[in-house]
Amino acid sequence: xxxxxxxxxxxxxxxxxxxxxxxxxxxxxxxxxxxxxxxxxxxxxxxxxxxxxxxxxxxxxxxxxxxxxxxxxxxxxxxxxxxxxxxxxxxxxxxxxxxxxxxxxxxxxxxxxxxxxxxxxxxxxxxxxxxxxxxxxxxxxxxxxxxxxxxxxxxxxxxxxxxxxxxxxxxxxxxxxxxxxxxxxxxxxxxxxxxxxxxxxxxxxxxxxxxxxxxxxxxxxxxxxxxxxxxxxxxxxxxxxxxxxxxxxxxxxxxxxxxxxxxxxxxxxxxxxxxxxxxxxxxxxxxxxxxxxxxx
Length: 296
Prior knowledge:
mainly beta; Thrombin, subunit H; tm1086 (SG structure) fold; 6-stranded antiparallel beta barrel; 17 strands
């Protein structure tokens, strides 16, 4: 059994609201120079949830289910940065206002740039939610450590989700079930960021052939993935032998340097995280939420 310092990890409430979808209204240009005009981030998304494909939507950077933040006009300072930092993947999120008051959801990731916290709620709550609703999150996970593996670092990960990820201790680190292994060469937008307690970075999708060769065209929102040769301990950068484990938080994108986004959950500067392919390594399957919710 993995030994952690979960008894020392602080649980602290943070409060946000549903994020208004920004309206572009103008064409953007994709990686091949072609214009596109599509829905994007934010809002209450009724038909895209964790467990669904990350590819194929008539959308760009779509975030599954509910996007949230504190202040659209000031995304990059407190209290919005605190809301992102304390909200960890697997945390409980509760609606505290509106017709669906009392409904409980689950944090499924951060989206950098937009500075959104992404939350899965049951369909019955979505149908009653409004854009004015407030959300209280029991922030818990920052500061979590593996007591017997000091060179493996954890970020934005609820200790209860960690305990359900079916990790296996090895003499040389940890075996981690993942839905896919991503070559470090494919990591684009967000590389170089030092914001390890929030945000994400993107799997570039310009080279369709490489995606096919590495089995990435079947990625799902909520998939747990391994990123090879990327050191996410003190920032996101290339380092041979390093491994990062993350969760897919938003859909494919059309712009150069972009693609499905990954929020970092685990990182090591050395090859201590050993991925094992498992198609059920998805937060929807692990927690029975999203497309794997009970009765669906």
